[in-house]
Each structure stands twice: as C-alpha cells, then as structure tokens.
Amino acid sequence: MNNPKAYSRRRVLSYGLVVAGGGLLATGATGVGAAAIAAEIPPGAQVRAWQGSKSANGWSITSEGIERHTVEGSNITADLRSGDVATVLLYVLRRFHYEVDNRLTTEDIAGHTTRRQVAAAFESNCLSGTAFAVRPGAYPLGAKGCFFPEDVMIIRDILADCEGVVRWGGDERVPKQSHFQIDVEPGNEKLARVAAKFCAWDAQPSGGAGAIDAFVPGRRRAADALARQQAA
Predict the structure, then answer these.
(1) SS3 (DSSP) at 162
(2) pLDDT tens for residues 184-222?
C-alpha cells in the first residue's frame, strides 16, 4: 500500500506546499525542538502563548503522567499522556506508520511539549500530552493536499475505529494535516471503551493494526459517515 515511488512523490508534493507557503522548511524530519516547531508556523499566522491550566480539549496541562511510549512493531517512540489516551493515540500512530508512511522515525513525531506558543488553539493539546503531529514541518498549519486520496481514506478509516474519540487536524477550519488529538474531555466513557477495544484487538492473533483492510465497503461507509460528522 506504500511503495517507494509513491512515498517519494508524496514527500515532493508536501515539500512543495511548504516552500510555496513561504519557504518554511526544506526537509521532512523536523524533530521537536523550538526551531523546528517555529518552522511549522506559516507567515502571517497569529502566534500566542497559550494561557490557563487546560488545553483546548479540556485536559490539564502537565508534565506528570507523560511517558515515552514505543509504537508496537517499530523503533518509534512518542511522548504521550499514559493510560487510555496513550492506548488510543498509539493505535492511530501505529496504523499511520504501517499503512501510510512506513519510514517514520521518532524524530518525525511531535508529541507532548512544554512550549506554549501556538498558532491554532488545537495545537495546545500537545501541552496536555493528548495530541501528536507527524512530520509537522512537512505538513504545517494551513497546508492542504498533503496526502494522496488513498492515504486520506486510510486516515478516515483509522478515525472511524476511534469512534469520534480522535480528531484529525485536516478537518479544522485552518487545517493541520499532520495533527491528531483526543477530542473528548477527561472521564469520557467512550474513550475508556475505545481503549479497551484496542487492547482486546491486540490480544487477538489476527486482530488490530496490521490486520485491517481500510477499503472494505462496510468500513468505507463507517469512515465516510464519521467524516461528514467531524467535518461539520
């Protein structure tokens, strides 16, 4: 589903978007340093320091309970809020790695941060460890068309498995197609249920990430229905 030629073309298209947006970045791997994060901000964006004790999705801003998690079946790690949040986001990241971009490295993942400067409110969710971005410098705020249609279909399928618990930055008014976040507040029962579902799938020999066909008609219908709901 992911071949070197398609990957190379996707990278070229993504880099072209970044350059066209103002020469922000010339490489795909950004890391999570301040300079790299600054490179994600498009020219003219209103950058501000996020205030308050909670991120935009209602979770407390903290460094406690944040751990470095390994994406199963890879050498990739991501700093995320432990518990159900990490279980769900790691499912998203694992499938993204398996099915969309199998050349990801840890340096391509921007998870928890203590840097409060944001150009969009939803970026604050990284402050609570409830969001991550994949190659944020290559797919920055405001860039569109970063993925091929079949890749978007896979992303939609991943979101459908999450049952609305996860939101994609590509659906925001000002999109950030690298961004994925928990979209429910703490204590939400659906989050716990979806996390338990993923754990159960992983316990099955042929279940969960790596054993899913995102293009099965029934799955496509569920993904399209959620896409209409979240886009609205």
Answers:
(1) coil
(2) 999 999 999 999 999 998 887 666 676 777 788 888 888
Average pLDDT of span 67-79: 95
| CA 26 vs CA 6, 123, 130, 215: distances in Å | 19, 22, 28, 33
99-105 long-range contacts, CB within 8 A, separation 24+: 99/1, 99/2, 99/154, 99/214, 100/2, 100/147, 100/151, 100/154, 100/155, 101/2, 101/7, 101/134, 101/135, 102/2, 103/7, 104/74, 104/76, 104/134, 104/135, 105/29, 105/75, 105/76
- Bridge partners (DSSP) of residue 67 are 80
SS (H, E, C) 76-122: CEEEEECCHHHHHHHHHHHHHHHHCCCCCCHHHEECCCCCCEECCHH
Residues contacting residue 169 through CB under 8 Å, at least 6 positions apart? 122, 133, 175, 176, 177, 178, 179, 180, 181
The tens digit of pLDDT for each residue in 83-110 reads: 999 999 999 999 999 999 999 999 999 9
Token reading at 221: 């219908």
Residue 145: CB partners within 8 Å, gap ≥ 6?
Answer: 13, 17
